[in-house]
User: What shape does this take?
Amino acid sequence: MTDTELMQLAKKARGNAYAPYSKFAVGAALLCSDMSIYMGCNIENASYGATMCAERVALYQAIANGKSSFVKIAVCGGVNYTDVECPPCGICRQVLREFCTDDFRVVLQNVDQIISYKIDELLPLSFQKNMLEK
Ligand code: THU
Assistant: This one.
């Protein structure tokens, strides 16, 4: 599964976004190590605070289905469905860090190119679960 193919699935998932408040639709597609794919979109709420980002919808769905090893996630988002790069929010970076290995990639797109980042590039000096182990 290439970055481009995964991004295509993220764009498809973005079509299901429920974003009546921000009008900022986001899609995500997560590739697991067993080659299964989980998609997510942002789901907003009138309370605003109950909003869930596309990345976490995809990841939590995968985890709820027993997946525990992940390769990469593609994320796309933008006002009026244009292709602007949509870097994951801070909470999603921390959640990805919890479940992903150091070689996990976050695939993003802007107007003319697809770029992938290591999680450590997006969340340097991160607080991690191994710090809690004795
Ligand atoms: N959003 C995501 O789905 N993922 C991100 O990483 C950034 C923000 C959503 C949340 C909200 O529904 C909308 O984009 C505007 O913040």
Notes: The helical segments are 3-14, 54-64, 90-99, 119-122. The mean pLDDT is 93.
